Amino acid sequence: xxxxxxxxxxxxxxxxxxxxxxxxxxxxxxxxxxxxxxxxxxxxxxxxxxxxxxxxxxxxxxxxxxxxxxxxxxxxxxxxxxxxxxxxxxxxxxxxxxxxxxxxxxxxxxxxxxxxxxxxxxxxxxxxxxxxxxxxxxxxxxxxxxxxxxxxxxxxxxxxxxxxxxxxxxxxxxxxxxxxxxxxxxxxxxxxxxxxxxxxxxxxxxxxxxxxxxxxxxxxxxxxxxxxxxxxxxxxxxxxxxxxxxxxxxxxxxxxxxxxxxxxxxxxxxxxxxxx
Length: 276
Ligand SMILES: *[C@@H]1O[C@H](CO)[C@@H](O)[C@H](O)[C@H]1NC(C)=O
Ligand SMILES: *[C@@H]1O[C@H](CO)[C@@H](O)[C@H](O)[C@H]1NC(C)=O
Ligand SMILES: *[C@@H]1O[C@H](CO)[C@@H](O)[C@H](O)[C@H]1NC(C)=O
Ligand SMILES: *[C@@H]1O[C@H](CO)[C@@H](O)[C@H](O)[C@H]1NC(C)=O
Ligand SMILES: *[C@@H]1O[C@H](CO)[C@@H](O)[C@H](O)[C@H]1NC(C)=O
Ligand SMILES: *[C@@H]1O[C@H](CO)[C@@H](O)[C@H](O)[C@H]1NC(C)=O
Ligand SMILES: *[C@@H]1O[C@H](CO)[C@@H](O)[C@H](O)[C@H]1NC(C)=O
Ligand SMILES: *[C@@H]1O[C@H](CO)[C@@H](O)[C@H](O)[C@H]1NC(C)=O
Known about the structure:
Layout: H1 2-16, H2 27-30, E1 52-54, H3 72-77, E2 81-82, E3 95-96, E4 104-105, E5 108-112, H4 120-127, E6 129-136, E7 143-150, H5 163-175, E8 192-199, E9 202-211, H6 225-228, E10 240-249, H7 260-275
Parallel strand pairs: 1-10
Antiparallel strand pairs: 1-7, 2-5, 3-4, 5-6, 6-7, 8-9, 9-10
The structure holds 2-acetamido-2-deoxy-beta-D-glucopyranose (NAG) (8 copies).
Keywords: Signal
Signal peptide: 1-16
């Protein structure tokens, strides 16, 4: 029995490795979508691009949706993105289907906090700015994000011109501490960036790879495409920024949890080798 359990564990890991992408599975291949599900769009059925992925090859601590222990919310605070204004969900939520089975409601929306982690996100709620909805991919643990820059509330929170690409590139520029925002028109499926941020004594080193093939370079099925298209370009460029994060420094006295999954797998493989 133990023997079979271990074999199942090892072959699941080998299967995942057949994917052309490392650290997540392509929802399109599974029957899901890289566009979110939004209610009441006109015409119906439009969605927003999942344009950033935190790969499961990242440190296990940052993949946990937590404000503590160096978790995802602490990482996002290192780039001035906070949970909702006064804990309330202003505006509607969206869903995503990352596994081909279930439409899952977003975990929550994070908003630009203008340097104030306590009530700064209220400012974004009314003035507009960068915001991010996120989901966890069940089978891999990767975090998928729909990032964009929206207009002020009075304008109905439409997305600004080129606001999906710009939202993604602001996030890339911030997590890698670039001196100036990226010029999105220069990005290709070979662009890479690396750099660090720090919050509450956790230092996050982020490697970014822009990848093609997950979204299309077009306006088809994109929510708010009329306000987003700019200079005759499609609403999105089709690139997804894949982040792989390592935690290179922690508060004194906190030790790395270690790659529990990876080491268990190595142990399992060794056991299987011993058994067969
Ligand atoms: C969309 O509308 C349906 C029916 O009113 C509702 O059940 C669902 O929760 C809504 N989805 C979201 C993401 O708000
Ligand atoms: C999931 O969303 C898709 C796209 O909007 C819709 O066609 C489908 O009916 C939804 N599935 C369920 C179970 O609600
Ligand atoms: C994936 O998520 C859905 C919805 O949250 C849940 O019902 C399902 O059990 C999960 N599947 C796995 C394999 O964790
Ligand atoms: C970081 O994000 C903010 C918006 O939240 C943006 O104004 C700024 O230009 C970004 N910085 C870089 C280097 O991209
Ligand atoms: C983008 O490309 C243009 C044309 O090749 C170049 O002039 C510009 O300096 C580039 N911008 C950045 C930020 O690399
Ligand atoms: C970060 O480290 C400094 C220097 O060791 C310490 O004074 C400070 O209290 C720490 N802050 C947090 C939030 O752990
Ligand atoms: C990258 O883009 C080029 C030009 O659009 C294309 O020919 C190539 O197949 C792409 N490569 C990948 C890995 O997506
Ligand atoms: C997207 O398509 C436009 C033409 O519509 C082209 O100029 C641009 O280079 C393409 N972007 C990428 C990332 O392939």
